[in-house]
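User: I'm preparing a small set of examples for a lab meeting where we compare how different chains pack in three dimensions. I only have the primary sequence for this one, and I'd like the structure in token form so I can line it up with the others. Please keep the answer compact; I'll paste it straight into my notes.
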Amino acid sequence: MERMEPELVLPIAQTVATAVIGLAATGIAFMQADTNRKKYKLDRYDRRFDVYEATLNFLSECKNSGFAGEAAFHRAKPHAPFLFGPEIESYLSEIIEKWVAFLEASAQYRDNTQPAPPDYDHQDVVRRQFEAASWLAKQIPEATRLFRRYLDVGG
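Assistant: Understood. Below is the structure token output for the 155-residue chain.
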């Protein structure tokens, strides 16, 4: 085997070292980019889950005629257009519409101990109240179905 000239060893070693360092830096850059993509997905998931959780809590409270989840739901709703497709934004607006319809009918409701306004239609008020409450009560499985495609972490 031939001996390499000493004056050639150093430049070759420097070239090889530079190439190895360059490859290592490229590998690190790709790993960093992958980590950043995963972090972005996790952050987006967390924000989406917050909206989903606020929606479920609000629907649970509606079912129990409570108001505890209302503030969190109203804080979460404005984020929906930026985190989900238009169907979620539309769905959350529909929840609010039904909740308002329920509240309006509940405010108009009079039992037999209360004086009724002149044009009061008890059956209509009870029907509107029941329809809104029934719709809201059925929404937890529907909300889960609609949000699932945005929250599915499998596959």
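A couple of notes for your slides: The chain has a mean pLDDT of 89. The CA atoms of residues 101 and 132 lie 6 Å apart.

User: Perfect, thanks.
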